[in-house]
Specification:
This protein is α/β, with parallel strands linked by helices. Helix content is 43%, strand content 16%. The N and C termini lie far apart (46 Å).
Length: 389
C-alpha cells in the first residue's frame, strides 16, 4: 500500500511520546473552559487580555456583518481590498508609530511572506535559535543563507554579521517575547549591532502585542526603538482577541510586500468583521490599561507561588511561564494529572521545543482571579507530590 507509511509514522510518534490529538472546547474562551466535557481552569490560552469574548469586539463584528457582509470575495489585489482593511492598517500604523502597515491572514503567513520578500539568494538572514516555526520556514523559503545564532547570544550574532559577505543584504530576525520561554530578546543590543554592520532588523511581536509598552504596542515601543527597527510583525489572535496579523514599517516596505509577498498576494483577504474586531481591540488596548495591570499582577502572583514550590521557570519575564520538566513522558503525565484535577496546562514537547526541555507552558490572563491562582498552585503542589518517588 502506498499509504502504509502513515500508520507506521503514527505508531512511531506514539512510541516516542510525540503523538498529538485535538481537544474540544465548548463555549467561550475564558479563564475557565469546558474542555472535552469537563470544566477546567484555563492556563493554556493566548487570550492574555481576555478580549476574545469582549462585547465591544462582538458588537463591532455584528455591525460589520450588517454593513459589509461575510466574506471579502477575493484577494486584496483583485476586489478584496475593502474599507475596513485600510482602516485597520491605518489604526495599526498609529498604534505602532510607523508610516504604514499591511494586514496578513495569519502570523505564519506574515512571517513567511516578509522573509521571502526581503531576502533571497546571496543574502544572509540571522535568526535566533528559538524563533517560531514560521520564521524558520520563512528563512527556508527565502533561499537566503540562514545563520542560526544561539538563543540571545550577542557574541555569536556579531560573529555571523562579521562573516557575512560585504555586498550581501543582511537581515536579523527575532521574536521580542519568545513564545515558549517567555523571555525578552536583548533588542537594544541587537539594534546596535544591526546599525554597526548595516543590517535590517525584523521583530515578531506576536506575544508582546497588547501586553508590553505604554499602550500595548509591544517591546519595540517599550524600548523606544520604533525608528530603528525596520519591520514589526504582530498578531491579532493573542492578546487582541481576534484573528490575523500585521506588518508595520515604512510606506516603501508596505508597497514592496504588496508586490512581492506571495502569502499576501495569493490568498483571499480576511473578512471585514475580523478587521472590525481588530480595530476595536486596539482601541481597548489603548484605552483600558487596567487590563495589562491585572495581567502583570497575575503573572507576579503565580510566578512567585511556583518559585516558592521550587519549580523552575527558566528566564521568563512575561505572561508565559515555562515550567521545565525535561523528560517528554513525565511532562505529558504531569499535564494529564493536572487536567484530572481541573487545571489545564498544556505540555509542550519536541519538535516545538528542543529535546530534553519539555515543559508545561503556563499562560496567564487578565481575567484570572486570586481564587483561580490559588487553585492552580494547590493542584501543581499535589501533582508533584503524587509523581515524586
Amino acid at each position: 500500500m502506498p499509504t502504509g507509511f502513515i500508520e507506521e509514522e503514527l505508531k512511531r510518534l506514539k512510541q516516542e511520546g510525540l503523538y498529538r490529538k485535538l481537544r474540544r472546547v465548548e463555549g467561550e474562551q475564558g479563564p475557565t473552559l469546558i474542555l472535552d466535557g469537563q470544566e477546567v481552569l484555563n492556563l493554556s490560552s493566548n487570550n492574555y487580555l481576555g478580549l476574545a469574548n469582549h462585547p465591544v469586539l462582538c458588537e463591532a463584528a455584528k455591525q460589520a456583518l450588517d454593513r459589509y457582509g461575510c466574506g471579502s470575495g477575493a484577494s486584496r489585489l483583485i476586489s478584496g481590498n475593502m474599507t475596513l482593511h485600510e482602516e485597520f492598517e491605518a489604526k495599526v500604523a498609529a498604534f505602532k508609530g510607523t508610516e504604514a502597515a499591511l494586514v496578513f491572514n495569519s502570523g505564519y503567513q506574515a512571517n513567511i511572506g516578509v522573509l521571502s520578500a526581503l531576502a533571497g539568494e546571496g543574502d544572509v538572514v540571522l535568526s535566533d535559535a528559538l524563533n517560531h516555526a514560521s520564521i524558520i520556514d520563512g528563512c527556508r523559503l527565502s533561499r537566503a543563507k540562514t545563520v542560526v545564532y544561539p538563543h540571545c547570544d550577542l557574541e555569536q550574532l556579531e560573529a555571523g554579521l562579521k562573516r557575512a559577505p560585504a555586498k550581501a543584504r543582511k537581515l536579523i530576525v527575532t521574536e521580542t517575547l519568545f513564545s515558549m520561554d517567555g523571555d525578552e530578546a536583548p533588542l537594544v543590543e541587537i539594534v546596535d549591532l544591526a546599525e554597526r554592520y548595516g543590517a535590517m532588523v525584523m521583530v515578531d511581536e506576536a506575544h508582546a502585542t497588547g501586553v508590553f509598552g505604554p499602550n500595548g504596542a509591544g517591546v519595540v515601543a517599550k524600548l523606544g526603538l520604533g525608528g530603528r527597527v525596520q519591520v514589526q510583525m504582530g498578531t491579532l489572535g493573542k492578546a487582541l482577541g481576534s484573528f490575523g496579523a500585521y506588518v508595520a514599517g515604512s510606506r516603501g516596505l508596505r508597497e514592496l510586500l504588496i508586490n512581492r509577498s506571495r502569502s499576501f498576494i495569493y490568498t483571499t483577504s480576511l473578512p471585514p468583521a475580523v478587521m472590525a474586531m481588530g480595530i476595536a481591540a486596539i482601541d481597548l488596548s489603548v484605552n483600558e490599561p487596567q487590563r495589562r495591570l491585572a495581567l502583570w499582577h497575575n503573572c507576579r502572583a503565580l510566578r512567585e507561588g511556583l518559585k516558592k514550590l521550587d519549580f523552575s521557570l527558566g528566564r521568563s519575564e512575561g505572561q508565559i511561564l515555562p515550567l521545565i520538566i525535561g523528560d517528554t513522558q513525565k511532562c505529558m503525565a504531569f499535564s494529564e494529572r493536572l487536567l484530572k484535577k481541573g487545571v489545564f496546562a498544556q505540555g509542550i514537547r519536541p519538535p516545538t521545543v528542543p529535546p530534553g526541555t519539555s515543559r508545561l507552558r503556563i499562560t496567564l490572563m487578565a481575567t484570572h482571579t486570586h481564587e483561580h491562582l490559588h487553585r492552580a498552585l494547590k493542584a501543581f503542589e499535589e501533582v508533584r507530590g503524587e509523581m515524586e518517588p
